[in-house]
Amino acid sequence: MSVECSIIAEMRPLDRDVMHYLSERTDFNTCIIGKTRKVSYGGMALDLSERDVARRVKNSLVKLTMCQIRESVNRLVNKGLFVRLSKEGKGNNLVLLRKKMVDLVAMDDSVKNPVHRVARSFSYYLKPLNLFQNNMLESKIDKEKHAVHSSVPRTSLLHTTTMNFEKKPMTLDWEFSEKDMEMILFRAFGNKYTIKDIDLVWVAEFVTHWSSEPGRLETQAKWTGKLGMSIVDYFRRPGLYDERRGISQQKASSPTAGRIEKNSSSLPDWAKQPRNDDDLVMWARGHGYGDGPIGYDYNQLRGWLRRKVDARMLESNLPKIMH
Hints:
Layout: H1 2-9, H2 13-24, E1 32-33, H3 41-51, H4 66-78, E2 82-84, E3 96-98, H5 99-107, H6 115-126, H7 143-148, E4 168-169, H8 178-189, H9 200-211, E5 217-218, H10 220-236, H11 240-244, E6 259-261, H12 280-286, H13 298-315, E7 320-322
């Protein structure tokens, strides 16, 4: 089943969570999910959100929605990992068939090898794919169980990671591991930030700084981790990068001291008004500002929203925006 494992390894972290959740609820006699033990989008959203409590701090906890779980299941179906046995729509129970597991059972035509034993072996084989325990997969396989199930071929998954254990100095042409960085951002902020949101200046400063210290040796994963934690700090505290670079350490008499540009990439989304007037109303609603006073034109509405944003920046202990 290396095909299924390779597919799962390349999917989004949420899809791997959902895949593992459904794997735990598979009826190994029929390869069907949702008959003997019902599953639902809402139940999965609640259970997977509660699991996050153990691996996230409270202020960064992400609450999953039914829509996110439904889209994840759709991706798993489109990848051929599951087949729907029930109709889509409100009021219909979610029933799925483990497609790859059925294929595995069909390959075993031995009379002495019943379905349930093959399925149990396959269940054990998928166990290391648990998102919360997927570091150093090879070292976590129980030797005793592996001996019992030695008839089931085991494919190394180390090639699917970007981990490199060789320590090297930082160089100017170094690039971080995208999969590792995606995981760092997801664990810190959920789906709020992606690699596309990273300011390239942050990466350039990191690479330039550490490449000037050739005596410092780290693995690819460690370099990516160090950069990732710096980026997490920059996202959590807009303006921190400028502060560390001394940009905000100006004379107290300067009118721009302690302020931040209105177009700065470090500003949170709720502080960046869209340029297009047609998008302004939806942006204000989406970030909790409401529709604004009745009778205001777009210029008046922008001024009203500016004052709302300034008050919110002050409450969040963030620098004042230079309008």
